[in-house]
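User: Fold this one for me? It's GNAT family N-acetyltransferase.
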Amino acid sequence: MTESSAPRLDPPPVPIKTERLELRYITPADIDGLRYYTDPEVCRYLPFPPADEAALVTRVANMASRMAPSEPDEALALGVVQDGDLVGDLMLRLRTRADDQSPPAVAEVGWCFAPSHAGRGLATEAATALITLAFDYYPLHRIYASLDPRNERSAALCERLGMTREAHLRRDFPEPDGSWTDTVTYGLLREEWPQG
Ligand SMILES: CC(C)(COP(=O)(O)OP(=O)(O)OC[C@H]1O[C@@H](n2cnc3c(N)ncnc32)[C@H](O)[C@@H]1OP(=O)(O)O)[C@@H](O)C(=O)NCCC(=O)NCCS
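Assistant: Here's what I get for GNAT family N-acetyltransferase.
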């Protein structure tokens, strides 16, 4: 890979407060709050298996290190807190840039919420704040989400966010059992975001 000559981007202005939530950096002490990553139902459509205890420790440590993305494939991970409880987490992963002098202009979003906090619009509220941060703070023109088309709750969240279902790729994602699943992509351009 070519070494970038783009200056590193500063860390984003975190924490962020919304009506009901705080979005903040994750720390290793969040391991109990993030235990939903051991739940097979939560991980059903995630691109990795449910964590055992060792994998959870590694996962949380990785998330805690994701504070100041700047280069393609670097990520920001945020914990979503309501009344002191960690209820979910969000990811913004920087992807494509125009050339090696430029910061990334395309980013991917991801989300995971504790089943005990589902169905109250918390993921919508938190993801709205993440996308606002992404367009306010990073020079992005496009944000996208990739998901298994069977993940109806995640697709519904993309649609609540105003994202457009742009593509359905057939059998492009390998499963551990040797089968291949489809992927759908939702996209959002800066000018489509109300605050963009
Ligand atoms: C994807 C995921 C975050 C969606 O969670 P969710 O609980 O469906 O989303 P929200 O928190 O935004 O809640 C939406 C629900 O609350 C309702 N709601 C209530 N108040 C609301 C409000 N103020 N704003 C928006 N929705 C509201 C909505 O009508 C919707 O109801 P429904 O469940 O009957 O359709 C969650 O299913 C998840 O973490 N899944 C496991 C991980 C995963 O698959 N991640 C994505 C990988 S691509």
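One thing worth pointing out: The beta strands are 16-17, 22-25, 75-82, 85-94, 106-113, 142-147, 164-174, 180-189.
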